[in-house]
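Example 3.2
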Amino acid sequence: MQISQAGIELIKHFEGCKLTAYKCPAGVWTIGWGTTEPIHGIRPHEGMRITQQQADTLLLDHLKSYEQAVKTSVTYPIHQNQFDALVSFTYNCGKGALKTSTLLKKLNQGDILGAAQEFLRWNKAGGQVLQGLTRRRTAEMERFLTPPEDPLYERAIDTLVEAQIITSPQIWKDRTYTQANVRDLMIKVATKM
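Structure, written as tokens:
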């Protein structure tokens, strides 16, 4: 799985792009679309400048390692929107933060709603609640809880309702079931027929 264009746009929306290095609210030198990692071996620093094309390329290049961190850390089946939210979170908070987070622990235990609520705890920098981080975590949580638009799964939910395996199509919209749950239930229905 790779981050979708919508996931990239989520990151861009909250990171913003600055072509001259600056210190972020956490006091870390940053450039481009939130890049804090070295560029050709040189960390962002005062006076450093890049072009828009370099900023765009850096984002796409650096996202690969954050995608990999999510792939190796998450053991529970997730869909594209959840992956996008987790990559955005990891890009902003760091790979170590993801790996040690209660968010990840809850997700890997299958507690989707509990994991989603954990996003909101990550809204501080330097011990202070930042409104920008609160907005970002809320957007990530909402993306995480948004089922993918997939007509196959919508039809599957209808089938599960008709077979009285689940009681309402609203359950899918309420995020009680993930794609993995639906797949397992469809297998259950198919084996009964």
